[in-house]
């Protein structure tokens, strides 16, 4: 069977369109999950679904989990019948078509859009050789009401990503109080004296699925303690190792952290990514990635 990527379905209908009155389009009133499809399944789906359910509850969006699961199974069955081994599956859940105005009426039916996109294998050059990262001028707003969720408003990340071309793989984001939070599409971990540290996301940032997997599964397997804390830029610069993570590209060691916001460029280099490599091996085993 041949399927051309990308393709989309809306409320279970492949090729259907979203209304211009949909609140996800008009107000960013919704959520999304970006999942890695690998060898016939979404290995981390249970974590994606947990975040989607919890975030929908926080935003009071009615979420028909059985419908989504059935719809997703249909799509994955179609993918299994093709030669596609890896893909990105993006799920967008909006409050639905609600007309004009901020008030959301109780009878609004949610919209579920699923898109399937091409994806690279896990072991990309960035994964194997590490990346250079810059510090962004753009700051993240402090807003505990939306913190942790992957909501549809990504304007701060868009403005941050516009600050560079392709000379860096990622950009590090601080909040308006100066705490290091995350990168534009990934979470950050600091390794110091054999311990892991990652940002407290109570005020802003996205609580990533791969971040959760590292905290709850991979790090404990290696007997590594993980501390969730407020992190200053000086604390990050003093790390033995840095690495980034997300559910699509896995774990990227950071080779250099570049601060070019002022006339004097501050360039910080890090040690060999011993801990990141150990975590990568566990991740590959979990995802059934073989040589």
TrEMBL record:
Subunit structure: Homodimer.
PANTHER family: AMINO-ACID AMINOTRANSFERASE, AMINODEOXYCHORISMATE LYASE
Protein name per UniProt: Aminodeoxychorismate lyase
Source species: Cellvibrio fontiphilus
Keyword Lyase listed: yes
GO MF terms held by the record: 4-amino-4-deoxychorismate lyase activity
Entry similarity comment: Belongs to the class-IV pyridoxal-phosphate-dependent aminotransferase family.
E.C. numbers: 4.1.3.38
Transmembrane segments: none
EC top class named in words: lyase
The gene coding this protein: pabC
Keywords attached to this entry: Folate biosynthesis, Lyase, Pyridoxal phosphate
Pathway field: Cofactor biosynthesis; tetrahydrofolate biosynthesis; 4-aminobenzoate from chorismate: step 2/2
Reaction(s) catalysed by this chain's protein: 4-amino-4-deoxychorismate = 4-aminobenzoate + pyruvate + H(+)
Required co-factors: pyridoxal 5'-phosphate
Pfam families: Aminotran_4
Domain of life per record: Bacteria
């Amino acid at each position: 069977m041949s399927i051309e990527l990308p393709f989309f379905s809306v409320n279970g209908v492949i090729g259907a369109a979203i209304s211009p009155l949909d609140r996800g389009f008009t107000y960013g009133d919704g959520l999304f999950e970006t999942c890695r499809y690998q060898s016939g399944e979404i290995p981390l789906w249970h974590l994606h679904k947990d975040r989607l359910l919890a975030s929908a509850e926080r935003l009071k969006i009615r979420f028909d989990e059985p419908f989504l699961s059935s719809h997703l199974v249909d799509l994955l069955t179609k993918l299994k019948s093709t030669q596609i081994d890896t893909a990105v599956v993006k799920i967008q859940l909006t409050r639905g078509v609600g007309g004009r105005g901020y008030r959301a009426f109780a009878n609004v039916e949610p919209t579920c859009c699923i898109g399937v996109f091409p994806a690279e294998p896990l072991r990309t050059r960035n994964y194997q050789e590490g990346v250079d990262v810059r510090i962004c001028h753009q700051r993240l707003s402090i807003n505990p009401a939306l913190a942790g969720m992957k909501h549809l408003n990504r304007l701060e990340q868009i403005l941050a990503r516009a600050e560079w071309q392709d000379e860096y793989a990622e950009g590090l984001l601080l909040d308006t109080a100066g705490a290091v939070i995350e990168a534009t599409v990934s979470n950050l971990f600091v390794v110091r004296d054999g311990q892991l540290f990652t940002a407290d996301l109570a005020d802003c940032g996205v609580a990533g699925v791969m971040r959760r997997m590292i905290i709850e599964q991979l790090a404990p397997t290696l007997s590594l303690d993980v501390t969730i804390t407020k992190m200053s830029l000086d604390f990050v610069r003093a790390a033995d190792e840095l690495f980034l993570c997300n559910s699509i590209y896995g774990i990227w060691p950071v080779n250099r952290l570049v601060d070019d916001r002022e006339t004097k460029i501050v360039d910080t280099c890090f040690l060999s990514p011993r801990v990141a490599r150990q975590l990568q091996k566990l991740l590959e085993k979990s995802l059934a990635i073989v040589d």
